[in-house]
Amino acid sequence: VEFWICLLLTFVGYLPGIVYAVY
Predict the structure, then answer these.
(1) From CA 17, how far away is CA 1, in angstroms rounded?
(2) What is the mean pLDDT of residues 2-7?
(3) Confidence band, pLDDT 50/70/90 cuts, at residue 9
(4) What DSSP line would sit under 1-23, residue for residue?
(5) d(CA 2, CA 10)
(6) How confident is the model at residue 8 (pLDDT cuts 50, 70, 90)?
(7) Rounded to 5 degrees, what are φ and ψ at 18?
(8) Closest of 23, 21, 17, 14 to residue 6, by C-alpha
(9) Which of 19, 22, 1, 23 shows the shortest CA–CA distance to 11?
(10) Cα–Cα distance, 21 to 3 (Å, whole number)
(11) How many CA atoms lie less than 13 Å away from 8 in the CB half-sphere?
(12) Is this prediction's pTM over 0.90?
């Protein structure tokens, strides 16, 4: 369960980072 939580948090924090970098 913790694995999926960490994975989700990583994705949620990673996606905005890409959008911000591209934007």
Answers:
(1) 24
(2) 93
(3) very high
(4) -HHHHHHHHHHHHHHHHHHHHH-
(5) 12
(6) very high
(7) -65, -45
(8) 14
(9) 19
(10) 26
(11) 5
(12) no
Give the tokens for residue 13.
Answer: 């924090």
Place of tokens 């890409």: 18
Structure-token match 């994975």, residue found: 7
Placement of tokens 């989700």 in the chain: 8
Copy the structure tokens of residue 2: 């913790």
| Count of all residues that appear for the chain in the document | 23
